[in-house]
Task: inverse folding
């Protein structure tokens, strides 16, 4: 298992979570969000399964292993997904949870020129915010959001580096309802393929 | 004076001249900031040489200055510049980002952990990898 924190605030932001999880696997920090760009991570969490040959067999699963209800404190464990992972560990390419090329294609859309323009604006904004210029970053984040409204990473990262209401004249609830943004997460498609 | 962010790297270029949204660098600055070099065959880096058609010579090269933003357009590389602070970001060229994930090969990467130790995905070849992206936001 490898986790990647795609977080412009870097190690300082990731550390409390990594420490609390007491993980034994590599917990890596993607402070420039360039690896997130490589995998086209449009929101987090996003899980990818990679086989022994370095080939992706599942992509962009929006999953948590467990969730804590903020009000009740109750922890729900995502047994179904964890069982799917165990099935893959045991059976490899024989697991019904492994996706074929066609299903994977739908989860990994080809990038267009405007997507890369959005990525460039996002990177410029991130750099400025990380170098003491968060107010100057806003204009570039806005351009990224306009060019690629379905990318929630760009929005959520930008909001966390400023003030969503002051800088972006919106609220989280309103932003999520905007039809141009599409769904917040892709479906979690745990349907087993016919083997 | 400009800061050029090029494919994950960062370089200060003292002589660089932004001009009407275009970024002109001296040839040594081009090489230092991007790894590209101007050769008779064209603009070259590692095993790649991009030929410069005659019609584009003037837009690209002028009195020992190289137009990095024009070159970016030629190689379908997105860029974004901030005039106020002289910061220019350049993304991957077209041959790197187009159909990047079409083969479904997981792109290799190298990142640090909290202790600063670097780890690469390719080190895990031969094992199944569950790769999870998350954030504090």
Result:
């Amino acid at each position: 298992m490898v986790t990647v924190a795609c977080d412009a605030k870097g190690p300082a932001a990731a550390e409390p979570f990594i420490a609390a999880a007491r993980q034994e696997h590599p917990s890596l920090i993607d402070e420039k969000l360039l690896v997130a760009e490589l995998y086209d991570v449009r929101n987090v969490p996003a899980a990818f399964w990679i086989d022994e040959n370095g080939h992706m067999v599942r992509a962009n699963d929006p999953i948590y292993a467990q969730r804590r209800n903020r009000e009740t404190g109750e922890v729900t464990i995502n047994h179904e997904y964890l069982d799917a992972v165990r099935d893959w560990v045991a059976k490899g390419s024989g697991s019904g949870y492994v996706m074929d090329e066609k299903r994977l294609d739908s989860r990994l859309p080809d990038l267009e020129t405007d997507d890369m323009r959005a990525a460039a604006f996002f990177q410029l904004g991130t750099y400025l915010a990380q170098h003491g210029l968060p107010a100057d970053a806003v204009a570039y984040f806005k351009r990224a959001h306009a060019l690629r409204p379905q990318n929630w990473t760009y929005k959520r990262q930008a909001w966390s580096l400023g003030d969503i209401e002051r800088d972006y004249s919106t609220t989280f609830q309103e932003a999520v309802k905007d039809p141009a943004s599409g769904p917040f997460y892709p479906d979690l498609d745990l349907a087993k393929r016919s083997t | 004076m400009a800061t050029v962010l090029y494919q994950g790297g960062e370089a200060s270029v003292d002589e660089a001249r932004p001009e009407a949204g275009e970024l002109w660098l001296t040839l040594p600055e081009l090489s230092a900031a991007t790894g590209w070099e101007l050769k008779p065959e064209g603009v070259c880096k590692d095993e790649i040489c991009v030929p410069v058609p005659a019609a584009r010579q003037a837009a690209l090269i002028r009195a020992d200055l190289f137009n990095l933003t024009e070159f970016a357009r030629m190689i379908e590389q997105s860029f974004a510049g901030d005039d106020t602070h002289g910061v220019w970001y350049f993304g991957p060229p077209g041959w790197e980002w187009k159909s990047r994930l079409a083969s479904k090969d997981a792109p290799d990467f190298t990142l640090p952990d909290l202790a600063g130790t670097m780890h690469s995905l390719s080190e895990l070849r031969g094992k199944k990898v569950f790769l999870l992206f998350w954030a504090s936001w």
